[in-house]
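Students often ask why we bother encoding 3D structure as a string. The short answer is that it lets us treat folding as translation between two languages. Here is a chain of 206 residues written in the first language.
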Amino acid sequence: AFSPWDTTLLSDGLLWDVRSTKLVHKFDKLSNVGYGVFNPSGNEVIINSAVWDLRTFKLLRVVPALESSRIQFCHTRPLMYVYSPFEPVAAKETSKKLAKNRTWLRVLDTRDYKDVSTVDIERPIYDVALNAQETALGDEEEFGGSESELGGSDEFITTGSSEDGEYSEDDFDEDFEEGDGHLNVQWANLYDDEGDEDAEGGDDGV
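And here it is in the second language, the structure alphabet:
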């Protein structure tokens, strides 16, 4: 993963300087699983569930919700969408807790990593993506009794905007609608009506 300014590269717990190609720092590996990404602030890196300060290279905190998870950042608001991607080998896991975690989509605040909302999709999640305008969130799920029987459903998560920059679980509403029985991508509206009106107003001024 590249830093927000493309000056450093994080790979397998190693931080590299892109220009000089020299190793800057080697982070302690607290786990052999997980992914490494930069926080959009540019001051922190997330390696599995560990959050490290790039200014001091010290461990800031451990966030259990990030364990073995992937992250999609929302660059227009201080939010991250966290999920544990489904892998075929994971279907044989005996840990009920770990299997359950693979059906959850979490929303965390990127500033303090506090849980804003958790939605149980009730099916393993393959992937999650934001559209270019960051007005919709899509998730690809497994649905069916086996890997050869894949289906889908439409699950919508509407997130409200917050004037003071603080978010709570009340800002996130969950609606569910049955799909057409095929593996598909579901999109969730990330703005309420008021936010849409503001966005439309901004477009008029361009």
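Translate back mentally: The chain has a mean pLDDT of 72. Keep this in mind for the problem set.
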